[in-house]
Design a protein that fits this description.
Length: 350
């Protein structure tokens, strides 16, 4: 039974799209009561990246524990929960199914709504948790290991994709360059840390802006440039300064991302710009955008480090706005590993 005397909407959300098992309790879309995250990074390090089958098995092992810890951390019971939210795509299909199966079982047993959430949308909504005053419209740069999007958010749940990557996602490029430098996995934080000791102007890596006025991205070229530079140095017996390579690579990527975000904001005539996704934790990107946004009289928002990575709190925030608009999936809900931003692919009322 739901405690109807409590008018607050408390949603339990589950996120398992890749290698984090997470459960959160979120009140009214913006207040996080608990947010438990179990990361598999140490498990996948030895493989140099996420192994889908191993990820799925670890989700199975940890998800019940994570759900219990989330309830305990919020000092709540299942009777306080108005709806169960789950990521249903995009992501690794096996990993997604673990979270979804638990969410469907809970929604059915509790007699509450089942709210499907797009993982990419969740990253945007992390900013609503961090910045209570933030409201649409704004332009958002979503950058992670699997996604690079420039999005105009005109209202809750309403998106216009202005640009996206044509090849590698930016996080993928960071991982590949880190692997080339022998830094290991995950590459993004390691490149960022190393870059702080390097000279960002030491090596002239290409800034790929594509066609005039294009807001798309391409990172395969700079990845190849780094590899060619390293191979050339080895053949010529020239010392490779990893710190300079990391700093120069990161600066080239950061400039392209930042310039296109500012350009998109001017195109849509908005004053607020938002950063989201795992790569939003990159200190070089944050610092460069802080400076550039001030120069262009724009207000920049980004989440705390914990909310940049995959977590259930951001899913709970997005789910709240789906909930109040009438979303309610049936138990035939299935994973959609290639789900696109703004796309709804489930049966149910809304």
């Amino acid at each position: 039974m739901i405690n109807m005397e409590n008018k607050d909407v408390i949603i339990m959300s589950i996120e398992s799209s890749c290698d984090e098992t997470s459960c959160a309790l979120v009140k009214n879309g913006r207040e996080v009561l608990s947010n438990i995250i179990y990361s598999q990074i140490d498990i996948h390090k030895k493989f140099g990246g996420v192994v889908p089958e191993i990820a799925s098995r670890n989700h199975l092992e940890k998800i019940s524990q994570v759900i219990d810890e989330a309830l305990e951390g919020a000092d709540l019971t299942f009777n306080d929960v108005r709806a169960i939210a789950t990521t249903y795509g995009p992501g690794l299909v096996g990993a997604l199914l673990v979270g979804m199966s638990n969410a469907k079982a809970l929604a059915y047993s509790l007699g509450v709504k089942l709210i499907p959430v797009n993982h990419i949308e969740g990253h945007i909504y992390a900013n609503f948790i961090e910045h209570k005053e933030l409201e649409p419209p704004f332009v958002c740069l979503i950058v992670s290991g699997g996604h690079s999007h420039l999005v105009y958010m005109s209202d809750y749940g309403k998106y216009e994709i202005l640009g996206k990557t044509r090849d590698d996602a930016v996080g993928e490029a960071f991982d590949k360059v880190a692997r080339t430098l022998g830094l290991g996995y995950p590459g993004g934080p390691k490149i960022d840390a190393l870059a702080k000791s390097g000279n960002p102007n030491a090596i002239e890596f290409p800034r790929v802006y594509l066609e005039k006025d294009s807001l798309d991205f391409s990172f395969s070229g700079i990845k190849s440039s780094v590899l060619n530079y390293i191979n050339s140095c080895k053949m010529k017996n020239i010392e490779i300064v990893n710190e300079d390579v990391a700093a120069s690579f990161q600066q080239a990527v950061v400039e392209v991302l930042s310039v296109k975000l500012i350009r998109a904001a001017k195109l849509k005539k908005v004053k607020n710009i938002v950063l989201a996704g795992g790569v939003a934790a990159n200190s070089g990107l944050r610092n460069y955008l802080i400076s550039l946004s001030k120069e262009n009289d724009l207000k920049l928002y980004f989440p705390s480090i914990e909310l940049c990575t995959d977590n259930a709190a951001m899913i709970g925030s997005a789910a709240y706005y789906e909930y109040i608009s009438g979303a309610d999936a049936d138990l035939n809900l299935n994973a959609v590993p290639n789900l696109k931003l703004g796309e709804k692919r489930y049966a149910g009322s809304k």
